[in-house]
């Protein structure tokens, strides 16, 4: 590898930073071509504390360690040293780790060779594959000319994250091939290229054990294989020593290097590969299972319609526990063996569906492109567009997703057309286009007959259009995010309606068509006909909760959130998450976590929302669902705005907005802007907060997403009043009153009274604040009550009613501390001091000598991870933040606690754990 990527550069810097305080030694390993030497060279270039010494023999070690001051010692390919030299190297590493010498020792060893026993006890850093983003950067850096997007994607897929293989493939292609003007060689990564990157000469494969192992892994797409099956197929003894390229653990055989496995398979003759697959099929205990059928499929050439049919039947068996990734491989291979064009397209479509469930969206799109042909029936073309819409809804421009769904609806018969209709509505909702949403939901998909300003609850440009829903006392349409075309709109910010919570428990499901019920209920909500929405949506909730299908459970959660039934939504979302994990449906996990995160956020449990969103962000990124990830970023920004983590708010809000702008996610954008404004408000910057929120909540073309903007109104009113511009907020308070009157959000009535108090004269404001506090008693959530206490306390202090003010401000401070909002607690404390009173001392349990209680929630989380031995990069991955953010927080942790090293932090955390201090 001749170049480096930003991610690798960051990893190197983080490693050097960690080595200064955790022992000073690390063994860097990875498969051939992963960039071990480049990693070492980059570490040498950026090491600033002192000189760098490359050591190539044992006798140079003592001379290097004799250098005064900080030193970086680099040893490349340490596993190739002879045993006595490795022993000397191990003694040097022990000296560095156990003494106070200021030396950093970096060793590299190859992961595809047996590990040297002398170095086995040393801490290891394994270099993983490049991310697709970093791989694309590397291609563009080294390609001779422009690279077509399709070629770029093929190169990234073929290289599987290996930088040396990626560069070898780029060098193999001509400028015409890179630009897409000429066809690519097939296979793109052939045996010669793979063997060249692997480097070491492959040993003779006596008995075929290496090839049989490679074939077993190749068929399933996994990195290992059933050891008993492979040994039977290769006629090898279970007690015989394994070749050095292989390792066995817990009944599984695997190559030490995935690249070597690919090279072994690619270099074998076609006849030998087919023989290995046939041997594996014959060694299987049940020839009717999917795996032996798949091996037989790889053992034949040309078409084999009977075998393809058997393979398809096994792969689509609903009672099978086979994971989606293996089903996808089986269906794709069955398609290759199918002579009939229409049937081949059906199997490619089925393979694409399984690829999407496995979390491989790009692979799904490639398979969909193959589900084409002149004789392909309309139902298959419609199914392909339905699935394409689902992929784009999770990871693409949502307007494109809507068009794919609408085309699918035209091509498909019922009930599949109903699923496509719901998908189109979901896409329009996510884009913030209520007209398109209503049009998609209409039976004939024509524009709504009612003027939109009169039909949609939260779309109108003035309060008049809200009169009808307000008179009905129904529930408003609630925020939603992208969803699955097969069912729910993925996660909706619903309001809580305690009177409906838990109503489904103990009752049998109602009879009805879930797709039609969901469509009718969603359309009735958009048209403000809540009298017509409740019955069908309640049926959707009940039917979903009485099953185990993750799609139906997600549909149930979506309907519950539109009803304002957060309890049922949380229950359905949690069950959907469990079902998705049990079935291996990687594409459903991030969406189920999205439901849970939004439901917890609307219920006032922002820390639980944060926990779900952090996990949801990781799963969304693994599944390639950038749109879903944007919504998780928005939740994390909102949670951080409560906790006062300003840098996290900015980071997550910007991440959400990057995708929102590119893919047209109006809802995620509105939530991200709201989070940034609430962070400004918490930091005592009301003018900036009002400036951000004004366009979102006031009537006009720039108003935020039609189902979200009203949630930000209380923040805007507070910001405008605090900035001395209460007149700017009067109109939106009347709009907000219509929302509060619907009764679906338990926080809204108290928030409305607080808003009116902020705008009222001195004669009535105090009474309004007291009424608001009374209303808070009917809803959960310390944060909103503490905000009302804070504003009331400020009002009292400015009127010199100091004793009353102190009581309210102290209640506010304690409330903010209870819910983990330290920046807001500081505002209350500052107001107490301004009124001549010092805040009460913190409870003894959180005032240990080390002062961990002084850390913010995010600082405390990071401190705990670091104290447990995690590197900055590992912390960043665990918390779904950038390493820059971890660096920033860790510096603040050290400054706040007066620490100088990670070792001191470990000791402090251990001490406070023993004394019972808050962790």
Automatic annotation (TrEMBL):
Coiled coil: none annotated. CDD domains: LuxR_C_like. Residues 848-913 form the HTH luxR-type domain. Transmembrane segments: none annotated. The keyword DNA-binding applies. Keywords: DNA-binding. Residues 462-518 are annotated as: Disordered. It holds the Pfam family GerE. It comes from the Bacteria. InterPro entries: P-loop_NTPase, Sig_transdc_resp-reg_C-effctor, TPR-like_helical_dom_sf, Tscrpt_reg_LuxR_C, WalR-like, WH-like_DNA-bd_sf. Residues 494-506 have a biased composition (Low complexity). This is Helix-turn-helix transcriptional regulator. It comes from Streptomyces werraensis.
